[in-house]
């Protein structure tokens, strides 16, 4: 079933028949019949479950069925008929499994039993739930301080599970909540509140119907939020101008054939999406954004000189903002040569973008990981807000900033208390509601947890989902540290690398997935999630659980809590889990924005959590929206040699973070392989390399530690000079732990200075054809 290794240009538009075919293949591979794929038809329906894939909203979660290739893959991955059983573990030692590819580990299937690591046989053996909880309790209660335990969350957990999880950890006494958001949109959560008073996007799905222009920075919707393509497709057909900034000419940003559109499907036509797509240099977004803003200031100067209408929204700026003069001063000081050099784009191009921006009444600014995962990611995000504020593009229909979140409920996890920096206000309400006093101290985020693993300050690591050991930067060093912990616990649906990078003692606790029926004492339960646009809605699974031994995430958390806290706890754990409505009632007490929570999720489509910025109420320290000056143009610090390249790491079309659906990346024309590095023709020639050569990538770092990934195949690809790209997570060993944004502490996954060296094993192999 593995696809033959090849590189061949994919000429089709994104979407279309290629997507339908890929969906059928994904279902077949997981043993799910395509006809009668009942599961898929209940996805994102009022009575069904929320897609476990991305966080893009659905048209009101009402009745339309939106086809989505990668949503189907996410569902098929969870609804697979394959099982990872105690017999499987009996047949393989952990040492043996450690030599398996990540792809093969997950392909074993859904976990069926709680498992405990047995050092004597080097195997995972089954354990009862009660004994598993008792083991965790024994470890947690033996620590010198609760501060030695870290509680990781991956953003697929429901609001109910996430709320109970943080409640437990806080009652236990820890404030350490590293979470996937720390590696993802933390720059948004830190940057936007300073600029506009909310750490989330300000648009709703319907705003896409009213935008005259949509700019997309560093986000790949055709792969990572494919349902967004419906909005972009419709906007493009309506005549809205879409402009993208991406080092890669991502196919879906260029042209898309809507599987929903019978005419395009039958006539094999497609719709042009971005017009144009600018191939910004890796780490060049600040320069591009400052260039666009500078061009607006220059046009505004001309307008004043010629007595024409102003190009900026003077009334809005005066009434609603602070800091505009400082921004303008800085833009005037910033030279075009430097802007062109850093962005890799021409002044004329950036001026053309500025013209589109100034001519459009309503503009939406969309962005993703290409913007946040940089050394100065927070400030990068703030430039997005600056541009929006210059013409009042926040707080009116068809306009706003639109950070596209990652995991399907990562935003909700944050809203219900997964944060290492809790607000005292809601800690007080936890005390009023539950009668214990949570520690006001700020705890550890991902980077701090990793540092604590290295220093020995962290002893117990519990993960509610995810694949921490692989998603993090610099893992060769950090995985070693993880092995020295006292206990690792993974609540998971499938076997992954993190379970094999175990501590002295280790547990894998298998949980229900979102597609499955969750029955508790009072009957079938539903959970709730919040999407990228702050819409909260219910989700209820329809499939039978993968095994009768699975527990739900809320029940597992409650089980750990009861075992650890015993009779000392002031939280009614059993009652909360018996009826998830009561968890939601508790969430509402702690977070009043969830007012009438249970009533409002029973309305099809759910409800919107208030966004003050949408109403032009600025919940910032100054009470106004703030322009933020970015000094200089360098998003990331360079180390060492001149012949280096900026490496960016991104997702293929066939993966969900560390989960690989296949080894292919259809739209980029790479099949059956992931050990590749994308480089342009000049950079290849400059280094006396040839397409197909095997090379090593070596990080240019300043801490004396060698970081290298060996034997990647060079693929000639149309990219800006000075850049290269490789896949996440294979390239993660190259990202130094110290390389993170000092404001949001997000690792700089999208800008690693590297050098390319010929591999010792340099054999030219495989079929190869240049990319057009
Ligand atoms: N199918 C699927 N869906 C997903 C995920 C998945 O892995 N698979 N992951 C989920 C998660 S957790 C997240 S956070 C999102 C991620 O979704 P995205 O934000 O789309 O993430 P990436 O694919 O990492 O990178 C996005 C784009 O940034 C571009 N890029 C790289 N460096 C730069 C740069 O310096 N500047 C600019 N302008 N662009 C750059 C890359 O070429 C790529 O097109 O998707 C979510 N949805
Ligand atoms: N180089 C590089 N590194 C990156 C990134 C990058 O762009 N480049 N992106 C970063 C980003 S944006 C993110 S969000 C992180 C992602 O980091 P994580 O969220 O930790 O990783 P995932 O790969 O999403 O986790 C997959 C695992 O989650 C478990 N799982 C799946 N569904 C469920 C469920 O319903 N319940 C439970 N309990 N477990 C479940 C399965 O066991 C599966 O193996 O990675 C970051 N790392
Ligand atoms: Mo993410």
Automatic annotation (TrEMBL):
Top-level taxon of the source organism: Bacteria
Gene designation per UniProt: ydeP_2
Signal sequence region: none
Keywords tagged on the record: 4Fe-4S, Iron, Iron-sulfur, Metal-binding, Molybdenum, Oxidoreductase
MF (Gene Ontology): 4 iron, 4 sulfur cluster binding; formate dehydrogenase (NAD+) activity; molybdenum ion binding; molybdopterin cofactor binding
GO BP annotations, alphabetical order: cellular respiration
Domain Molybdopterin dinucleotide-binding span(s) in chain numbering: 645-753
Annotated Gene Ontology cellular component terms: membrane; oxidoreductase complex
Names of required cofactors: [4Fe-4S] cluster; Mo-bis(molybdopterin guanine dinucleotide)
UniProt domain Molybdopterin oxidoreductase: residue ranges: 110-489
Protein family membership: Belongs to the prokaryotic molybdopterin-containing oxidoreductase family.
Source species of the chain: Paraburkholderia humisilvae
SUPFAM superfamilies: ADC-like (SSF50692), Formate dehydrogenase/DMSO reductase, domains 1-3 (SSF53706)
Protein name: Protein YdeP
């Amino acid at each position: 079933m593995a696809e033959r290794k090849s590189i061949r240009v994919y000429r089709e538009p994104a979407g279309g028949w290629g997507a339908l075919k890929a969906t059928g293949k994904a279902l077949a591979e997981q043993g799910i019949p395509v006809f009668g794929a009942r599961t898929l038809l209940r996805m994102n329906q009022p009575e069904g479950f929320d897609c476990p894939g991305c966080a893009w909203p659905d048209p009101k979660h009402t009745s339309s069925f939106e086809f989505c290739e990668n949503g189907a893959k996410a569902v098929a991955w969870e609804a697979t008929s394959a099982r990872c059983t105690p017999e499987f573990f009996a047949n393989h030692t952990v040492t043996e499994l450690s030599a398996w590819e990540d792809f093969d580990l997950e392909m074993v299937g859904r976990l069926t039993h709680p498992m405990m690591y047995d050092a004597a046989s080097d195997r995972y053996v089954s354990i009862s739930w009660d004994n598993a909880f008792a083991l965790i309790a024994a470890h947690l209660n033996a620590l010198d301080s609760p501060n030695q335990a870290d509680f990781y969350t991956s953003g697929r957990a429901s609001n109910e599970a996430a709320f109970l999880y943080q409640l437990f950890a806080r009652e236990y006494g820890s404030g350490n909540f590293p979470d996937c958001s720390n590696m993802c949109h933390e720059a948004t959560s830190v940057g936007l509140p300073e600029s506009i008073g909310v750490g989330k996007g300000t648009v709703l799905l319907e705003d896409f119907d009213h935008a005259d222009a949509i700019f997309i920075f560093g986000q790949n919707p055709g792969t990572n939020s494919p349902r967004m393509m419906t909005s972009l497709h419709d906007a493009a057909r309506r005549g809205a101008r879409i402009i993208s900034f991406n080092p890669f000419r991502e196919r879906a940003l260029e042209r898309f054939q809507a599987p929903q559109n019978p005419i395009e499907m039958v006539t094999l036509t497609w719709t042009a999406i971005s017009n144009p797509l600018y191939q910004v240099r890796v780490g060049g977004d600040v320069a591009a954004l400052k260039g666009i803003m500078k061009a607006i200031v220059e046009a505004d100067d001309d307008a004043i000189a010629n007595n024409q209408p102003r190009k900026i929204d003077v009334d809005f700026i005066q009434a609603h903002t602070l800091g505009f003069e400082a921004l303008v001063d800085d833009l005037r000081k910033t030279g075009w040569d430097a802007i062109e050099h850093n962005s890799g784009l021409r002044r004329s191009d950036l001026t053309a973008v500025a013209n589109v921006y100034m001519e459009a009444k309503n503009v939406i600014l969309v962005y993703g990981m290409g913007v946040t995962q940089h050394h100065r990611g927070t400030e990068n995000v703030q430039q997005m807000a600056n541009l929006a504020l210059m013409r009042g593009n926040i707080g009116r229909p068809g306009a706003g900033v639109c950070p596209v979140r990652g995991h399907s409920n990562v935003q909700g996890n944050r809203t219900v208390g997964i944060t290492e920096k809790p607000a005292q206000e809601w800690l007080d309400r936890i005390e009023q509601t539950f009668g214990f006093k949570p520690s006001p101290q700020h705890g550890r985020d991902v980077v701090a947890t990793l540092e604590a693993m290295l220093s020995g300050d962290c002893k117990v690591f519990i993960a509610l989902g995810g694949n921490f050991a692989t998603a993090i930067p610099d893992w060769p060093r950090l995985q070693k540290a993880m092995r020295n912990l006292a206990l690792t616990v993974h609540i998971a649906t499938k076997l992954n690398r993190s379970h094999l990078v175990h501590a002295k003692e280790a547990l894998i606790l298998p949980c229900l997935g979102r597609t499955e029926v969750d029955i508790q004492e009072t009957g079938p339960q539903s959970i709730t999630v919040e999407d990228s646009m702050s819409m909260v809605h219910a989700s209820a699974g329809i499939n039978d659980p993968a095994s009768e031994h699975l527990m739900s995430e809320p029940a597992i958390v409650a089980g750990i809590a009861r075992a650890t806290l015993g009779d000392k706890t002031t939280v009614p754990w059993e009652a909360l889990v018996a009826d998830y409505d009561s968890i939601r009632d508790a969430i509402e007490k702690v977070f009043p924005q969830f007012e009438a929570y249970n009533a409002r999720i029973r309305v099809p489509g759910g409800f919107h959590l208030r966004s003050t910025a949408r109403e032009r109420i600025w919940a910032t320290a100054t009470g106004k929206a703030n322009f933020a000056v970015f000094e200089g143009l360098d998003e990331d610090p360079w180390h060492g040699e001149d012949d280096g390249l900026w490496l960016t790491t991104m997702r293929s079309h066939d993966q969900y973070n560390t989960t690989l659906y296949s080894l292919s990346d259809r739209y980029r024309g790479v099949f059956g392989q992931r050990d590749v590095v994308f480089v342009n023709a000049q950079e290849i020639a400059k280094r006396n390399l040839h397409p197909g050569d095997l090379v090593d990538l070596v990080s240019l770092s300043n801490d004396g530690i060698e970081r290298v990934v060996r034997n990647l195949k060079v693929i000639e690809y149309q990219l800006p000079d000075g850049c290269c790209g490789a896949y996440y997570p294979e390239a993660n060993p190259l990202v130094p732990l110290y390389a993170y944004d000092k404001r949001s502490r997000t690792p700089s996954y999208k800008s690693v200075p590297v050098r390319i060296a010929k591999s010792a094993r340099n054999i030219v192999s495989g079929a190869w054809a240049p990319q057009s």
